[in-house]
Amino acid sequence: MPYAKRLGASLLVIMILNGLIGLKPAGIALAAAPTATIEVDDELLTIGESTLVTITFSEAVTGFTIADLTEENGTLSGLRTDDNTTFTATFTPTDGIEDTDNVISLDNTGVKDNATGTAGSGSTVSNNYAIDTKQPTANSIAVSDALLAAGETAFVTFTFSEAVKDFANDDLTIPNGTLSAVSSSDGGVSWTATFTPKENIRASTNSITLDKSGLTDLAGNPGTGSMSSGNFAINTVRPTATIEVADTSLSIGETSLVTIAFSESVGFGNDDLTVPNGTLSMVSSSDGGVTWTATFTPAADVEDPTNVIELDNSRVTSFTGLREQALPCPIIMRSIRSGRRRPSQSRTLR
């Protein structure tokens, strides 16, 4: 047989065989592997929430269990079906998680077609869901001044673990003063306000307390518990003083003890005093600055029934930083009657 005929016969045999391989008995369908879709109902889960998960197969299946599923940042429970085609389960997120990218995956190889036993292949992935089950917390409450005196204010800064909303002054307990309205300039992470102490208060123990249950993060998670600032002291009681002159009628050669008694320890000096018709020795204190004494010596050749030693209140500073108000305060002034003028002598000329 010529070569061309032999080649043509061979090709014909191959075509016939290929045709036979492609034939299938009439009325019999080749089995296909089952496929699936996974739908997570709630795509943003917060504290206390759970969501329905629906797994739908292309046909009734067997061998499918919850172990064939892999869930991120949570747990699946309650897998059930009425027809072996559509299955449902409940997904509960893990506490303390903040993650925007999560999916549930199905290993199809563990699932078989219920009619033919054909196993699935590959994997199926659900739609994405986000989780925010972190409670907002307050990292710090900082008061800028640990010792507040009259006329002073302090800057208060509240710093949270994340942006929060619904935070207001009603969530705060403010001792011995007032706080301006809290506000934020960075989207709700840091909040600031100004604290003004009350007048005439002396309190060594103070702190600002936050009730976190009144605020939420941007996902709606509520805070819990409370937090307090560090301690700060308040002393807005201004010092007062009395001045006592021991001898109110001074004559030649006499001096008098002068006692300046304050309501608390202060720092002051002779420059704070106005002394008429005489001089005052350097003031000094032996009790830590509460009581000060000095000696008044009248000037010579003076006769004046009305004299007072005056204290400039505004120059006196307490050890807590307070100054006396430049207003009338209870200072007792004692008159000093000086009689040191010598009698004039007449001389007789001869």
CATH architecture annotation of the largest domain: Sandwich
Low-confidence stretches: 20-24, 322-335, 340-350
Rg over alpha carbons: 47 Å
Helix- and strand-based class? mainly beta
Oligomer: single chain
Strand content: 35-45%
What is the domain total for the residues? 3
Shape: rod-shaped
What is the tally of helical segments? 1
Largest sheet: 5 strands, antiparallel
Can you count the beta strands? Answer: 36
By CATH reckoning, the class of the largest domain would read: Mainly Beta
Notes on the protein architecture:
This protein folds into 3 domains: 36-132, Sandwich (Immunoglobulin-like); 138-235, Immunoglobulin-like; 241-339, Sandwich (Immunoglobulin-like), CATH 2.60.40. The protein is 6% helix and 40% strand. The protein has 1 helix and 36 strands. The chain has one helix at 3-22, and strands at 36-40, 44-46, 51-57, 61-62, 69-71, 74-81, 86-93, 98-102, 104-107, 112-113, 123-125, 129-132, 138-143, 147-149, 154-160, 164-165, 172-173, 177-179, 190-197, 202-203, 209-211, 216-217, 226-228, 233-235, 241-245, 249-251, 256-262, 266-267, 273-274, 278-280, 284-285, 291-298, 303-304, 310-311, 317-318, 337-339. The strands form 12 sheets. Strands 25, 27, 30, 31 and 32 form a 5-stranded antiparallel beta sheet that branches. A 4-stranded antiparallel beta sheet has the order 1-3-7-6, with no helix packed on it. Strands 13-15-19-18 form a 4-stranded antiparallel beta sheet, with no helix packed on it. Strand 6 (74-81) and strand 7 (86-93) form a beta hairpin. Residues 32-131, 132-234, 236-321 form the Bacterial Ig-like domain.
